[in-house]
Amino acid sequence: MRPVQCPARKRNSQVADKLTQLVTDALSRAASEPGGLPLYAGKSDPGLFPNTAAAKPAAHKCLADELLRAVGTEPKVRYALSEKGWDFLLASVNPKQVLEDFVRVLEAREGEVDELLSTARRMADSLHGLKAAVSRVLPVIQQPTPPGPPSLKGSGENRLATLVETASSSQASRSNAPSPLPSSPLPFREGGPGGVGETASLPAAIREYLAARRGPTDCTLPELFRALPNTEPLTLGAFHDCLREMHADGALALHHWTGPLYAMPDPQFALMIGHGVAYYASLKSGQ
After folding, report:
1. What's the alpha-carbon Rg for the chain, to the nearest Å?
2. How do residues 210-220 score in pLDDT, each as one tens digit?
């Protein structure tokens, strides 16, 4: 005859088995997370125990028996496995199962690391692409473009250069103030062996004009270019090369344009210095 089990004893046994399972599951999670986990799981954060009424007695037992130790401080206290917790876990669970749990966690972490590395590589490629785009656009902005309305056809570089030139022309046409630029080049000359007639060197002419110039602001590069002597043809490239050499030698200070590029008048005179667009020049103190 089969012995009859008391219903109350059966329920108590089921509760004890469920409590033990919750404890061993929580300790296994803690063992695979040395940095600790919250005691209860949240909406988006994993925890050692599910945030249910049935799991609270198991959590209280782990804390009362010192199977878990607190890691961190309020308000984000986490719990990791203690020495007693390790002893309890290894005595209650097959070590092979614990090792398999660790392997699964390592594989998951490896996938997360691969995803982070892939994201970092995509960000690096995007930064290189942006730098390449800037290096292609700036020379187009610096070159003069033929007058005319902006066209929607052609490459993006041509459209951008045309829009900048159109905005600059519109701004200049709306202004009724007299232009601060000299109407003709200033006659910077030095006396040669035969008297007057030899043109001053380009760096000397730049220094002489900036030293003689009076004004509340630094000299713009368009003004400086147009003020130089034109007895010999001066190309924009030679002008920029001279400015860069004087800037590198410490004889000249070049200052960046701080406004939007579309508002820059005569953008073809600007040049790249470092990570900025230089548009103003002044003599350094002591020059």
Report:
1. 38
2. 988 877 788 99
By the 8 A CB rule, do 21 and 13 touch? no
Checking if the pLDDT of 154 tops 70, the result is: no
Q: List, in order, residues 6 or more apart from 281 with CB less than 8 Å away.
A: 206, 210, 218, 219, 220, 221, 224, 243, 252, 253, 254, 255
Give the start-end residues of each E strand in 165-234: 189-192, 195-199, 219-220
Check residue 228 and report its DSSP letter: S
In order, the DSSP letters of 113-137 are HHHHHHHHHHHHHHHHHHHHHHHHH
Listed residue (259, 245, 166, 181) closest to 277, CA to CA: 259
- Cα separation of the two ends of the chain: 115
Full-model pTM: 0.34
- The 10s digit of each residue's pLDDT in 240-258 is 999 999 989 888 889 999 8
Asked if 187 and 250 count as a contact pair (C-beta separation under 8 A), the reply is no
State the number of CA atoms in the 13 A half-sphere of 38 facing the CB. Answer: 13
Of the options 1.10.10.10, 3.40.50.880, 3.20.110.10, 3.40.50.10490, the CATH number for the domain spanning 199-287: 1.10.10.10
7-93: which CATH topology? Arc Repressor Mutant, subunit A (1.10.10)
